[in-house]
């Protein structure tokens, strides 16, 4: 069993690396940002509640994230484990993740943290914004997302450092170079 989370600022390359990780290790991918965007696209009640928050780069409330995750974690068909992307994003969410995994007798093995300089993240996101169609990939919202990351998400690292499962990965390089660094941790 391999339950891991991929961590890092917006634009760190979490989605790109996740696609390679889930394929090689046969993991169930739980990306809260993708799930929220699906809710918006389907016009659900949850989607309506979160649309504006996401558009402006804020964080969705803890309880909405919890309800959405409970629905997904307990209904997915079994694989070798879970890969969480974009979650946990606050210290409260880190405790939530422990609780959710405990409920199914599982534990997080690693927090894979992609380390990328801020300016490179901004450049990547602006470039992505040209084709992604995402309402939050514009300069103003990107800045807000990075502030949210620094203030609320970065403290999550400390939680996992103290647990001894924090694994920093140099996130600068080609997709394959970065993936090799991740494999080194996961194949250990
Ligand atoms: P992402 O696709 O991970 O970049 O997330 C896009 C947006 O969805 C974020 O800027 C937040 O508004 C929202 N979001 C995604 N995951 C979470 C989360 N775990 N907690 C709160 N808000 C989230």
Overview in brief:
This protein is α/β, with parallel strands linked by helices. It has helices spanning 14-25, 32-42, 45-55, 62-73, 91-103, 118-132, 139-153, 155-163, 175-186, and strands at 4-7, 28-31, 82-85, 110-115, 166-170.
Report on this structure:
The chain has 188 residues and is an alpha/beta fold. Helix content is 59%, strand content 12%. It contains nine helices and five strands, in the order E-H-E-H-H-H-E-H-E-H-H-H-E-H. The chain has a five-stranded parallel β-sheet, sandwiched between helices. Helix 1 (14-25) crosses helix 9 (175-186). It is globular and about 40 Å long. The mean pLDDT is 97. Adenosine monophosphate binds at residues 10, 32-33, 36, 53-54, 57-60, 65, 86-87, 89, 93, 136, 145.
């Amino acid at each position: 069993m391999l339950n891991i989370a991929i961590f890092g600022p917006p634009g760190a390359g979490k989605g790109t690396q996740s696609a390679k990780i889930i394929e090689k290790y046969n993991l169930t991918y739980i990306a809260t940002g993708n799930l929220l965007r699906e809710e918006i696209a389907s016009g659900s009640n949850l989607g309506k509640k979160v649309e504006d928050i996401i558009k402006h780069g804020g964080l969705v409330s803890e309880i909405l994230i919890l309800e959405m995750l409970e629905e997904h974690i307990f209904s997915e068909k079994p694989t070798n484990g879970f890969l969480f992307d974009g979650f946990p994003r606050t210290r409260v969410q880190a405790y939530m993740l422990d609780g959710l995994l405990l409920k199914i007798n599982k534990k997080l093995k690693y927090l894979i943290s992609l380390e990328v300089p801020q300016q490179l993240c901004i450049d990547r996101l602006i470039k992505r914004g040209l084709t992604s169609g995402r309402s939050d990939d514009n300069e103003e919202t990107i800045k807000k997302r990075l502030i949210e990351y620094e203030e609320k998400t970065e403290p999550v690292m400390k939680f996992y450092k103290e647990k001894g499962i924090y694994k920093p990965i140099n996130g600068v390089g080609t997709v394959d170079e970065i993936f090799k660094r991740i494999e080194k941790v996961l194949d250990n």
